[in-house]
Amino acid sequence: YRTKKNLVGLKNLAATPSDYTPITTINGQAIVNSVTGQPMTLYNLNPALVGESNVLLTNLPQLDDNAYHGVEFDAVKRMSNHWQLLAGLTIQRQKGVYCCNGTSDDALTATDNVNDPNLNINRSNNYLNNDSTYVFKVDSSYEFPLKIRSSVNFQHYTGFPFQPQGIFTGLNQNSETVILQPAGVQRLPSVNLLNVRLSREFIFNERWHVEPIVDLFNLTNGQTVISEVQTVGPNYKFSSNTINPFLARFGLRFNF
Question: How far is CA 26 from CA 31, 122, 185, 198, in A?
Answer without folding.
Answer: 7, 20, 27, 63
